[in-house]
Amino acid sequence: MVPADAAAKVQRLAADGGEVGVWLKPNEAFFRVGNSLLYTRLMEGRYPPYRSIMPKKSNMKVTMGVGEFNSLLRQSLIMVDRETTRAAFEFAANELTVTSQEATNGKGNVRMPLADHTANGFTVDMDPAYVASVMRVL
């Protein structure tokens, strides 16, 4: 996994729409943007076994804005319990609802309208902090 600070630097270097070259080695990555070369060590760690919970084939599609989704994630993180670290992402008719619960402070629901999606009636439990870390790079 590329560290967030390295990904942010590549994003800043490529802000003018320049081409980005990427070379990966087992524990490191190199990025060339214009005349700049950025080196970073890749992060190691155990990642959740997402392949075991995701369907092998799916026709579901959800399109949403990165900024709006980031805002929804930040709001949902307020009520995430440190022990369970999960929230329910429920895709319904025209909205996404994220429900998180903390043992002592109660329950929170954050909603976001969805214009283009085919995931009606689909719910998945995920750690919003994990999703937010990916979205920060985007």
Question: Would you summarize the structure shown here?
Answer:
The protein has 138 residues and is of the alpha+beta class.
Describe this structure as you would to a colleague.
The protein has helices spanning 4-13, 50-53, 66-77, 128-137, and strands at residues 20-25, 28-33, 36-41, 62-63, 87-91, 95-102, 106-113, 116-117, 122-126. The chain has 138 residues and is of the alpha+beta class. The strands form 3 sheets. It has a 4-stranded antiparallel sheet with strand order 7-6-5-9. It has a 3-stranded antiparallel sheet with strand order 1-2-3, with helices on one face. Strands 4-8 form a two-stranded antiparallel sheet. Helix 1 packs parallel to helix 4 (128-137) and helix 3 packs antiparallel against helix 4 (128-137). The two termini are 14 Å apart. The mean pLDDT is 81.
List the helices and strands and how they pair.
Elements: H1 4-13, E1 20-25, E2 28-33, E3 36-41, H2 50-53, E4 62-63, H3 66-77, E5 87-91, E6 95-102, E7 106-113, E8 116-117, E9 122-126, H4 128-137
From the structure above, extract its key features.
4 helices, 3-stranded antiparallel β-sheet, 9 strands, globular, alpha+beta, 4-stranded antiparallel β-sheet
